[in-house]
Amino acid sequence: MHNVVFVLGPPGSGKGTICSKIQENLNYVHLSAGDLLRAERQREGSEYGALIESHIKNGSIVPVEITCSLLENAMNASGDAKGFLVDGFPRNEDNLQGWNKQMEGKAVVQFVLFLSCPVSICIDRCLNRGQGRTDDNEESLKKRVETYNHQTYPIIEHFEKSGLVREVKSERSIDEIYADVVNVFNAANKE
Ligand SMILES: Nc1ncnc2c1ncn2[C@@H]1O[C@H](COP(=O)(O)OP(=O)(O)O)[C@@H](O)[C@H]1O
Ligand SMILES: Nc1ccn([C@H]2C[C@H](O)[C@@H](COP(=O)(O)OP(=O)(O)O)O2)c(=O)n1
Ligand SMILES: [Mg+2]
Question: For binding ATP, which residues are annotated in this chain's numbering (predicted)?
Answer without folding.
Answer: 12-17, 129, 172
